[in-house]
Amino acid sequence: MAREHRLPPSAASLSASMRDLGYSLETAIADLIDNSITAEATKVEIFCDLSQADPTLAVIDNGRGMNAEEAIIAMRHGAADPKERRAPNDLGRFGLGLKTASFSQCRRLTVASAQNGSRVGAEWDLQLVDERDDWLITIPDAEEIGCLPFIECLGDNGTIVIWRILDRLFEDETGQKRDEIVNEKLDLVEKHLTLVFHRFLSGEVKGRKKLTIAINGHPVEPFDPFCRKNPATQMLPEEIVRIDDASVRMQPFILPHHSRLSTTEYDYYQSRSDFISNQGAYIYRNGRLMAWGDWFRLIPKGEATKLARVQIDFPSSMDESWTIDIKKSRARPPHPVRERLRQIIARVSGRSTTVHRRRGQKLFEEIEAPMWERYADQGRIRYALNATHPLVQALSDTLDDDQQRKFDLLLKAASSALPVEMIYSDFSTHPREIQQSVLEKDSVIEGLRALKISLFNGSKGDARGFRKVMLSTRLFENHPEIAEEFIREEFE
User: Fold this and answer.
1) Residue ranges with strand state E in 180-275
2) Do residues 153 and 181 both lie within one domain?
3) What is the DSSP string of 272-287?
4) How far is the C-alpha of 61 from the C-alpha of 319, rounded, in Å?
5) Contacts of 22 (CB under 8 A, 6+ apart)
6) CB 58: neighbour CB atoms within 10 A?
7) Whether residue 259 is found in the same domain as residue 376
8) pLDDT digits (tens, 9 = 90+) for 171-228
9) pLDDT at position 318 over 60
10) Predicted TM-score (pTM) of this structure
11) Among 16, 51, 334, 345, which residue's Cβ finds the most Cβ atoms within 10 Å?
């Protein structure tokens, strides 16, 4: 008969392995904030002090805090069973986040907590674990807790998590280079938190008070990936998929064309990657963003869906069917949700394309004689210079037959040589930076006079015809006031 043999893992080896689960600084800090939200905190402060001999990072909240027994349980690996049903406001999953997130960045983790002014604490030190090859924590006394970094920021209720021996954070750099690396990482932390917790920061999560987060005293503002404050954003009908006794809510959005964004909005969205890479499903668990910017291989990312976003909300009771990982940075929808998402994508991709097509169509329709014409024939699309444009006609009238043949050839060659691929690439990544009008302010009047002479050959002409051609060239669109003043003076 087979016999049982106890085979516990090596504490030193396993703890070293757990440091490499793939956390970045921003995902590690987000995991700590999950605990603060679960503890009903309304304020989280993050401090990173590089001025001391032993640099420190601390995350402090004003949640309900822990007593001595709860603090020790929180430091245990696997403190919760992932199969147990969580409370609706609980953002935990495996009971590993505090430890694995912290060890990914530091070798010494200290937790101090307060309830009604009574403070307790516990500490993991990986050096001690390595030396003894055992799962040993230390329990600091009241005097030691009182000497902890940033402990003065802990109120009568709340918790402080302190990271020391930050060997992963500094990347073996020292001095100014080290500080530059940390500041760059903290900037990424801020951008990550503005998105991941944007519904908590804006007070949207039902049953919860608004959350505030600050990094070294600077507040973190919410970043809405759906641009809902812009009136041009389209909100399509919500759909609900029911799986057993739980509901998954799916809310599609179509973002505005970049021309409908204010400069501030555009810069804000562009600084957090371009529209194409941000498209996709945004997966929320209990209001916390878990994964985003992915169509789950249902379709490839592209221009057709660049403005499409789908907000998907599911409760923590469905964790297992969504295959949530330890870092809470990956989620895969169950089959019924994927099938419904496939149907939604077909609808939103058409809407996203329409936003661009309507904008482009307007550029042709709002001008009676456009400089460029669009042809769609035999399943192909091409663009060509308009040979009947008044400015082109004015030049053609001065040419003899030989010159006219050469001019016609030039128009066809210029149309055929239109750099479509380069335009597509530039417009996809930096649409607001494309600016075709090249006239400086000092050259506007000179250009307007030259245009008038070309069109009317010295005669007075008429304001309506001049304005029509002027708008079609788009040469003067950056200086409308000067152009209108010129028309008033020359034609009225």
Assistant:
1) 212-215, 218-219, 234-235, 239-243, 246-254
2) yes
3) T--HHHH-EEEEEETT
4) 26
5) 327
6) 23
7) no
8) 777 788 888 888 999 999 999 999 999 999 999 998 889 999 999 999 999 999 898 9
9) yes
10) 0.73
11) 345
